[in-house]
Amino acid sequence: MKATPLWLGAVRYEGPCFRLSEARGGPGDPPLAVKLPHLDPSFGEDRESLLDELSLCRSLPEGISLKPRGPAGVDLPGATVWEWVEGQPLSELLGAPMRPASAVRALLCFCGPLGDLHDQQIVLDDLRPEALWLDRVRGTALFLDLSAARFAGPGRGGGKRSLEERRLEILAPEQSGLVALSVDHRADLYALGALFYWMLAGRPPFAAPDRTGLVHAQLTATPEPLVARCPGLPLALSEIAGRLLEKNPGARYQSALGLAADLRECLDQLQIDGEVEPFPLGQRDASPVLRLPRGLFGREDAIAELRAAALDPAVSAVAVAGPSGIGKSSLVAAALAGSGARVATSKLDLVAGRAPLSALREALRPLVDRLLGGDPATLNPWLARLGADDLLAASLVELLPSLSPVLAAQPRRWCCPPWRPAGAFT
């Protein structure tokens, strides 16, 4: 049986790995949407992300994402087909301050599907407002883009999205990969807090002239309280936003259910007389995840020895050896935590089959990311030193593409050595 052809219409969303277009199929078919990968399907990465998203959404309850239909077929290789739902992106509501009741209703719409995701132990990990789809008439919402979603688990870093692909206005500090915190469902709640702040104030919590400054603000700055930016705003709404935007995940709301309970209390009061009397927040807030205490026990001597070495300018390198899974990385992380030492760490595994110089790239990447996300007064002297050596600058850009925006202007006056094929760094 021949597949029904699809006619593509307007593009409704453009994300890091795909664009979503409205589509029409055969007679009697419901309105459809097609997600097309940005890259040629032969590259595989975007196509695999879309297929993983399709598989994930088939296992989810309805009302979280668009309803999946399946792969598009040979006419649109790598694309996936979904049932379309009319609505508008949350981004269209962020141009000016919203009325408090309207902002609360909008945020409440997303608490339900986000809580359902978290109940499945899934972290959405990217709540960019263009992909938050809202039907204000029916009071429903869903997520257009789950390509970054992943099952919750221990680990640092920003998941499937690189720092360059993220909307930094809603970036939780732990998603930067620059702090020793795991990324879990509370990063999604931080993003909701940033969006709530944006809805009420008409601008995001932090502003900076460039992406480096914005990352630095997310890591170190405290947003101006909403009651200071929005005179007359009920204090409870300002406190809810502030709680969601805590740097420490443990100080935030721990569940979308707890957040929704406080928002409903605010909405009930707003609908009576437009005011919200102060009330204790988080009375129905409880984490959906059992959290065991994290730490190392009985390793105090080893931690002290490593920390002393990290702070000793006479020590240039330290090796920590042991079988896989014994806790070497945790030991090093515990030793460096709070030490203030600038140390590059990497794993060396002769049987892992990793690319050439991957250990060097792994060691340098956190240092470079920390410099790029730090104070420009600290960054600029480093850039001057690196840019003075054309060979070094060109090598580092190939090894660490995140340096490209600041070092790309350096002329490339070198050729690939005969012992390494071009592109081996990446």
Summarize the structure.
The protein is α+β, with helices and mostly antiparallel strands and 426 residues long. The protein has helices at 45-58, 100-119, 185-201, 211-220, 226-229, 235-244, 256-273, 300-311, 328-336, 358-372, 376-387, 390-399, 404-407, and strands spanning 7-14, 18-24, 32-37, 67-71, 80-83, 88-89, 122-123, 132-135, 140-143, 150-151. The longest helix is centred in the N-terminal third of the chain and has 20 residues, at 100-119.
Description:
- This protein is of the alpha+beta class and 426 residues long.
- It has 4 domains: 7-83, 2-Layer Sandwich (Phosphorylase Kinase, domain 1), CATH 3.30.200; 88-273, Orthogonal Bundle (Transferase(Phosphotransferase), domain 1), CATH 1.10.510; 297-343, no CATH class; 348-426, no CATH class.
- It has 13 helices and 10 strands.
- Strand 4 (67-71) and strand 5 (80-83) form a beta hairpin.
- Helix 3 packs antiparallel against helix 6 and helix 8 crosses helix 9.
- The longest helix has 20 residues, at 100-119.
- The chain is globular and about 70 Å long.
- The two termini are 44 Å apart.
